Amino acid sequence: MKIWPKEPFGQAVAILVIAYLLIELGIPYIPPLFGFTSAPTPNTVVFQYMLTVALGVLLWVSDSEERWRAFKRPLYRVLVDERRKPLRIALLVLLPALVAFVAWGQARPSLAAPPSFRAIHPAPPGTISFRGRAIQLTGLENPLRRGGDLAAHYEEGERIYYQNCLACHGDLLDGQGHYGPAFNPAPLSFQDVGTIGQLTDSYVFWRIAKGGPGLPNEGGPWNSAMPAWEEFLTEDEIWQVIIFLYEQANKTPRTWEEVEGFEPAGEGEAQ
Predict the structure, then answer these.
(1) 0.70 exceeded by the pTM?
(2) What ranges make up the beta strands (E) of 131-259?
(3) What domains can be seen in the chain, in order of their start residue?
(4) Is there a smaller number of Cβ atoms within 10 Å at the N or the C end of the chain?
(5) CA distances, 64 to each of 4, 125, 228, 236 (Å)
(6) Is residue 114 over pLDDT 70?
């Protein structure tokens, strides 16, 4: 007994069903195979991929006149054949009912508890451990800004961002990446004046290096999907991506000199 449909219409439906299962279930299953944390596939990503698959199927069924006629044959029978009139009536009732049910589910008021307030910028520790080495955050400036080719650091930071951060924080650094809508709260927008423009380089380094798992116990429970990037990026790579973030968002980091009477630590003072 053959399971695969013989007619192009049935084959097209089977391809769409298999593609949906692979996108919805297969993509989130891949990261755990390599030791990474899985994330749900956002509906916007599912829609984009399914639209691509549907266009490919449409091109396939219409590339020859014979296959195109065979593809339309079941549709013609359902819409015109008098013997299938009960099926037509059922579709005329069920399809609008399905659309109405989906619209009602999206528009109905939610009875869920209101979202809890959270601190957007929690207080950082004075010192952190980065790959076994203690780094003093208080007074620390980005060491790559004081030496080396800033343009080269920007280009390297751009590469790192697009390889690791784009999916969540977006091409425009606005928190609207492909995976962004899947998270609640959504990734922060670096274009917002209340984010990196209000922070020092060392603060951003701490948040990138430690991510959600490194947030302090005070003020919890936290709700952050940010991974601890110290497990994947070197210290210089984090500083480089910070340079890219500020330059690309057209923001300037706060400096420790802005705190009256504070003398910033030199490069040798970062333990």
Answers:
(1) no
(2) 133-136
(3) 8-107 (no CATH), 127-269 (1.10.760)
(4) N
(5) 21, 67, 52, 56
(6) no
